[in-house]
Amino acid sequence: MTYTIEGKTGAWEIVVGLEVHAQVISHSKLFSGASASYGGEPNTHVSLVDAGFPGMLPVLNQECVAQAIRTGLGLRARINLESRFDRKNYFYADLPTGYQISQFTHPIVGEGTVEIELSDGTVRHIGITRLHMEQDAGKSLHDQDPARSFIDLNRAGVALMEIVSEPDIRCPEEAGAYLRKLRQILRYLGTCDGNMEEGSMRADVNVSVRKAGEPFRTRCEIKNVNSIRYVMHAIEVEATRQIEVWEDGGEVDQETRLFDPARNETRSLRSKEDAHDYRYFPDPDLLPLVVEQAWVDELERGLPELPDDKRDRFVKEYGIPRYDASVLVAEQAIADYYEEVAKGRDARLAANWVTGDLFGALNRTGRTIADSPISAAALGGMLDLVSDKTINGKIAKEVFEDMLETGDSAAAIVDRKGLKQVTDTGAIDAAVADVMARNADKVEEYRGGKDRLFGFFVGQVMKAMAGKANPAMVNEALKKVL
Amino acid sequence: MSLDPATVRRIARLARIGIDESDVPALQGELNGILGWVEQLNEVDVEGVTPMVGTGHAALRTRPDVVTDGNCRDAVLSNAPDGVGPFYTVPKVVE
């Protein structure tokens, strides 16, 4: 169903395209040998190239090119064997050269596509227009002094990938799903850590609205939104604002706006009036970048299995539902954990335990899969005890909680607590007889046709045997005597 | 192509160069002179000729991803007119 926002004049569709800036994982910067790592003392990860000193020349980092190509391949996009660098001219205090080296007319990566899945199971494909490499700017600190801004150039020159989507997104949920999927792909590829809070991934959001069947109307660009939740809010808030402008007989101006999450509104950035007049021209310091198809092929062979492929393989190989598979491939570490648990075991049971009890436990203890208190081998060991009927499903939950607390192996816990499942028919029959004797009235009712009392008897027998009886055998024994 | 006075003022603003209104006619004349000279290139027929992006046939040089530079804050800040501790400073710029 199409997502619409109801205005005074009826329903409006929204049209969204995203420009994502993803910081490339590399040791050194895009055009200089200064460190690209976080957390250095101010202005120490800076070379004279980054500081824009006269006569300094940029030299391209080969690994950053490789990372951009890997990302392009991960987005199933066309790799342009020849690309170019251009200067994007603007003045800002944290841009010492007065221009950003970017790729304008000839980006390294062309059209691609990202598959997203919505909560109702709908699958959509969002087009990628392009991916290009460019430099990050430095950082301005405005809170150190009443009259001055302080400038730290440590980030200046760090490699970014700008990933531009087609205006294919039609609702906030799709925008969220697209960003999550993009982040997942980048993390699998190891080309960007995808951390939006730290700013290593940020989004510019282009929003417009239209009536059904219309061509696109004027869009506004909301700059630098730094969380997925804010992107989704900003789209809704901005679309609502534009609808009001149109319905009041006004015109939406193409402009740059800022999203203010505290006030839940977008505001015009008037200072950026000339911001789109960047006077691009080819950077005379850099020749065109030519890469060999053989190198692209080599990079492609080195790619890890991507999330969509992994999900499809999990469905096929382990026979688990697509939804469970999607959850399990959300992060590579989770997928690896699951595969270790599932190998040679009941893969569906493994999926239920990982997505259910294990995720619940990680949530409760505030841990991630990487420092899970229960290792994949330990969880597998417990599932082995369930499969060989040493313990039943209910006792398994108790063992799991104990493992979480003590770190002991499942086998050790079963021994220590004497939780071994009772499969001795004599002991079960005795417990059944005892329960029947103590509940003669209920036995009468059951035999009089009150079938649903069967569950009551099972419960009583299990209780009498401290939960350790084999449930199938209890059912059997009860059916026989009742 | 010929520049009008408004375009001259706009170019100056984009380049952050302050000019007096009285300078505009002279600048307009000079800029139009430059444009006119470059426009002579339009007389060359380049139909079917691949755009030339450089005079050399060399490929772009690249470097391995190794940290070889930086950690030279004193040099980086040596021209800063108003440095404070480890920072450059500029008149406050807030959106």
From TrEMBL, chain A:
Gene3D superfamilies: 1.10.10.410, GatB domain, N-terminal subdomain (1.10.150.380). It catalyses: L-aspartyl-tRNA(Asn) + L-glutamine + ATP + H2O = L-asparaginyl-tRNA(Asn) + L-glutamate + ADP + phosphate + 2 H(+); L-glutamyl-tRNA(Gln) + L-glutamine + ATP + H2O = L-glutaminyl-tRNA(Gln) + L-glutamate + ADP + phosphate + H(+). GO terms for biological process: glutaminyl-tRNAGln biosynthesis via transamidation; translation. GO terms for molecular function: ATP binding; glutaminyl-tRNA synthase (glutamine-hydrolyzing) activity. Keywords: ATP-binding, Ligase, Nucleotide-binding, Protein biosynthesis. It comes from the Bacteria. Its EC number is 6.3.5.-. The keyword Ribosomal protein does not apply. Allows the formation of correctly charged Asn-tRNA(Asn) or Gln-tRNA(Gln) through the transamidation of misacylated Asp-tRNA(Asn) or Glu-tRNA(Gln) in organisms which lack either or both of asparaginyl-tRNA or glutaminyl-tRNA synthetases. The reaction takes place in the presence of glutamine and ATP through an activated phospho-Asp-tRNA(Asn) or phospho-Glu-tRNA(Gln). Heterotrimer of A, B and C subunits. Belongs to the GatB/GatE family. GatB subfamily. This is Aspartyl/glutamyl-tRNA(Asn/Gln) amidotransferase subunit B. It comes from Komagataeibacter nataicola. The gene is gatB.
UniProtKB/TrEMBL annotation, chain B:
One of its GO terms (molecular function) is asparaginyl-tRNA synthase (glutamine-hydrolyzing) activity. SUPFAM superfamilies: Glu-tRNAGln amidotransferase C subunit. It is an enzyme of class 6 (ligase). It catalyses: L-aspartyl-tRNA(Asn) + L-glutamine + ATP + H2O = L-asparaginyl-tRNA(Asn) + L-glutamate + ADP + phosphate + 2 H(+); L-glutamyl-tRNA(Gln) + L-glutamine + ATP + H2O = L-glutaminyl-tRNA(Gln) + L-glutamate + ADP + phosphate + H(+). GO terms for biological process: glutaminyl-tRNAGln biosynthesis via transamidation; regulation of translational fidelity; translation. It comes from the Bacteria. Heterotrimer of A, B and C subunits. Belongs to the GatC family. NCBIfam families: gatC. This is Aspartyl/glutamyl-tRNA(Asn/Gln) amidotransferase subunit C. It comes from Komagataeibacter sucrofermentans.
